[in-house]
TrEMBL record:
Domain of life: Bacteria
Protein name: Acyl-CoA carboxylase epsilon subunit
UniProt GO molecular function: acetyl-CoA carboxylase activity; propionyl-CoA carboxylase activity
InterPro entries in the cross-refs: ACC_epsilon
Length: 70
């Protein structure tokens, strides 16, 4: 592939600049390796809503225990 050759081309329709920008963004996001994407750290506000201590376990009585203080 030469430097003059485009990476992609529109073969039908007339996309707007916004539509082309969205397409380029989607292509770049798909081309990035999965290991490069780091999950965002949870904020203090989000962490405050999570139960402290051991994680809740599914099973009999789990629904009731999820609302009880630990």
């Amino acid at each position: 592939m030469s430097a003059e050759e485009p990476l992609f081309r529109v073969v039908r329709g007339v996309p707007t600049a916004d539509e082309l920008a969205a397409l380029v963004g989607a292509i770049v996001a798909r081309a990035r390796p999965a290991s490069a994407a780091k999950p965002a750290a949870a904020s203090q506000w989000a962490r405050s809503a999570r139960p402290a201590g051991a994680a809740l376990v599914a099973g009999p009585g789990a629904w009731r225990a999820s609302g009880l203080p630990r």
